[in-house]
Each structure stands twice: as C-alpha cells, then as structure tokens.
Amino acid sequence: MQTQVGIVGAGPAGLLLGHLLHLNGIDTVVVENRDREYVVDRVRAGVLEQGTVELLRAIGVGAGLERRGLRHEGVYVSFKGCRHRIDMAELTGGKAITVYGQNEVVRDLIEARAATTRPLYFEAQDVRVGDLDASTPVIRFRHRDSEHEVRCDFIAGCDGFHGVCRPSIPEGVLTIHERTYPFGWLGILADAAPSSDELVYTHHDRGFALFSMRSPTVTRLYLQVPPDEPIERWSDDAIWDEMLRRMTTSDGWTPNVGQILQKGVTPMRSFVAAPMRHGRLFLAGDAAHIVPPTGAKGLNLAASDALVLARALKSFYETGSAEWLDRYSAICLRRVWKAQRFSWWMTTLLHRLPEEDAFDHQRQLADLDYLTTSRAAMTSLAEQYVGLPSEVSFESVGL
Ligand code: APR
Ligand code: PHB
After folding, report:
1. Which atom of ligand 1 is nearest to the CA of 13?
2. Pocket test for ligand 1, best of 41, 159, 283, 343 (most atoms within 8 A of CB)
3. Strand arrangement of the beta sheet that strand 200-202 belongs to
C-alpha cells in the first residue's frame, strides 16, 4: 500500500488529523491496534475547550456534540466548605467549555471516517514504523493473518503515551521532561443525576475531589488517592462515603448518590518529549505529551496538535514548502508548555501533598482565596480553562 500520510492510532489526535487531511484532499491510512468497540467504549476525559468544539463543528462532526454536549459557562472552586463560582463566559467575552465524553468524540470521528471510505484498520497487530529518515517511511502491521506494509510520505505518530512511534525514535534525539505526582485519581461513573449544572473542583483537608458529569443522568466523580491505589481496596460504600465527605459544602450542596457503573484509578504525570518530530515522523497528542487531568487539557492538546499538523501538511502538498513542517514542533510546544504549566498549577493548588507542612497548606488556601476574589486571577483561570487562542486559523486548513 501507498499513502501520503500514514497515521498510527485512532484516538482523537489521529482521527481528527485524518479528517482534516481528508477535507483537504490528502490521502491517509489509519492503523489502530484495538478493536472499534474498545476505542468507543473506553471512558476517558470529557471537557472540550471552546476552540475544540468549534473545530469539530467546522469539520462537520458537531451533530452529536450539538445534541448531547453540555455547555458550561462557569465552574466552581470549593474550599473550606464553600463553593465559589467563576463566570468563565463573562470573563472571556462569551467563551465556555462543553462536557462531552472523549469516547463520544471518537465515535463521531470514526463514523465520519467510515463515511469517507478511506482506510482505517482496527485490530492491527505488531505495528512497527521504520525508515523514518528516508523519503518514504513505512508502517508495517499484521491484519487478519496477513502482513501489510504502507509506504508513506510522512507518518503521524498519534498512538498515545504507550504507543510504538515515540520509542522508534533513535536514542538521544528526544529530550524528555517528566514529573510524576505522589497521588492518583480514583474515578467513578455513577447512575445519578448531576446535582450541579457545572463542575466543582474541591480542595479538602482529606484530599482533592472533583464533581463532573456525562449526561443529565450520569455523574462523573474523582477522588485523590495514593498513586497505584488498588481499586479493590475501595468498596462502593467507601467511595461514596469519601466523595460526600470531601464534596458536601456548608450550604448543604452534595452530589446525588447512585449505582456505580464503572470505577478505576489513574496515575498522574506531566510529560513532554521534544522535539515532536524526527525525520518524517511527527508525534501528536499523548504520544508526545501527557498532562495531569486537573486542567482538563489532554484531549484539547491532541486536537490542537492535529490542527497544526494538518496546516503544515496542507502547506507542503500545496506549495512544496517544508516551512510549516519545520515549525510544527515549536508551534505545538508553545501551547503544550502553557497547558503543562496550567495543569501543574491547578494540580498543586488543589491536591493535598503528602509532604506538605502548615506553610504549604496556608499558601494553598491564600492562593484559593485570591483566585476566588480577584477578577484578574479569575480571568486568568477562565481564559486558560476555555482555551488560549490558536496560532493556526481554521481558514488556513480550508475550513
Ligand atoms: N499501534 C496502533 N495504535 C496504537 C498503538 C500501536 N502500537 N498503541 C496505541 N495505539 C492506539 C490506542 O489504542 C489509541 O486508540 O492509539 C490511540 C491513541 O489514542 P489516545 O491514547 O486517546 O491519544 P490521543 O489521540 O493523543 O488523545 C489524547 O487521550 O489519554 C487521553 O487525556 C488524554 O484526552 C487525551 C487524549
Ligand atoms: C471529566 O469529566 O472526566 C473531567 C472533568 C474535568 C477534569 C478532568 C476530568 O479536570
């Protein structure tokens, strides 16, 4: 097989890139190692920045988002038992976030891909990339017992943090920046109507907690726990006890309790691999960077990488100039580092640090007090939470 751009991974980064390239008449083959049901059912992030929503609409994949997405114009920060609302729309000239599951985004993008009839291989085994420095790099994989080889002009490594693309880059090329946090998140999906219309980020002496949702009948909640906490240690009753203890505020607000539909523990890390390119391989999304989920940036960074890469490839195919391809990594990393900084700040603001002393604790409370009383501080959170402006316009990718 031959294609212009070989895409490894059918997550948000790979699928969005594939669709943006399709709309510009650029040929792609997408290779994914999981099956379609797994990719669509996997519960992941759920907060879309204003720009991510606009991008999905602009590429014609906004119907599900329109019907089931929940637009939030504000967010709550809760500490010392009181909730404080930050009016994001008012502070940002009308911008908001939309709660819509990442798995729903992926399902909508897979449907859009299928409608183009361009190839998307699920359940590809033993996926490998090679000849990254040559003019035609290659993706090899096994599919239904036959071996495949896809010769490409470029490869997009959109295969997530545990994928094969980043490790295929020769030793010494990438600089890795990494921070692991001394805690994880225990997340649940509950069959309970959300008791708040907007998210609630809670700072509590027993640790961080987050109230979110997926639909008018499903609540999504998280608790700070020790890293690698075995989920078996937590009965459903113990989870609810701890959730309510941390989240209930002095005015009586509390999450509705319901049957737990799904539960799991996620580790927390910040990770950046730079540059996001080696030869004709371009990394995008989690393959290149991970943020802790506190800032809700992971999915949005994946979308923004895809937009920048589409811009660069379009420019190459239309003019023959590699200028944008050469700028790809630097443009993405500027945004990535700002999102890293924001996610790190939200994380250290809201979590209980195992080593923290009374000074750290008081500093955290002062930071929260400032955040919820200063218009400047609230504006800073709001503009980052709804998403900073992009360096790439929709017009430049033909939208
Ligand atoms: N070969 C082919 N596909 C692979 C391989 C491989 N060796 N390894 C992983 N994949 C697939 C995964 O199964 C997944 O479907 O690559 C896809 C990567 O998707 P994501 O992990 O969702 O990464 P990305 O598209 O960058 O989106 C980032 O995901 O982890 C969340 O919070 C993060 O919301 C952010 C988003
Ligand atoms: C979620 O709804 O899954 C969610 C919301 C906000 C976050 C992280 C996760 O910061």
Report:
1. 25
2. 159
3. 82-87, 74-79, 200-202, 209-215, 218-225, 175-191, 259-274, 289-290
- Would the CB of 158 count as within 6 Å of ligand 1? yes
Name residue 348's amino acid: T
**Half-sphere exposure at residue 212, Cβ-oriented, CA atoms within 13 angstroms:** 27
The CA–CA distances, whole Å, from 101 to 4, 75, 355 equal 31, 18, 34
212 bridge partner residues: 220
Per-residue pLDDT of the chain (399 residues; tens, 9 = 90+): 999 999 999 999 999 999 999 999 999 999 999 999 999 988 888 999 999 999 999 999 999 999 999 999 999 999 999 999 999 999 999 999 999 999 999 999 999 999 999 999 999 999 999 999 999 999 999 999 999 999 999 999 999 999 999 999 999 999 999 999 999 999 999 999 999 999 999 999 999 999 999 999 999 999 999 999 999 999 999 999 999 999 999 999 999 999 999 999 999 999 999 999 999 999 999 999 999 999 999 999 999 999 999 999 999 999 999 999 999 999 999 999 999 999 999 999 999 998 899 999 999 999 999 999 999 999 999 999 999 999 999 999 999
Amino acid at the residue 190? A
Q: Please give the Cα distance from 180 to 178 (Å, whole number).
A: 7
192 alpha carbon, distance to own chain's centre = 25
Least Cα distance to 289 among 52, 13, 8 occurs for: 13
Kindly state if the Cβ of 31 falls inside 6 Å of ligand 1.
yes
Q: Give the torsion sign (CA, 119, 120, 125, 131).
A: positive
Task: Give the residue numbers marked as catalytic.
Answer: 72, 201, 293, 297, 385
> Taking the mean position of all CA atoms in its chain, how far away is CA 394?
20
- Classify residue 299 by burial, with Cβ atoms within 10 Å: 0-12, 13-18, 19+: buried
- Structure tokens of 268? 């927390």
Say how far apart CA 174 and CA 313 lie, in whole Å. 22
Pocket test for ligand 2, best of 70, 186, 196, 222 (most atoms within 8 A of CB): 222
> Which atom of ligand 2 is closest in space to residue 99's alpha carbon?
2
What secondary structure does DSSP assign to 259-281, as a single string?
EEEEEEEEEEEEEEEESSEETTE
Could you tell me the CA-to-CA distances from 77 to 151, 170, 259, 300, 378 in Å, in that order? Answer: 50, 44, 26, 21, 11
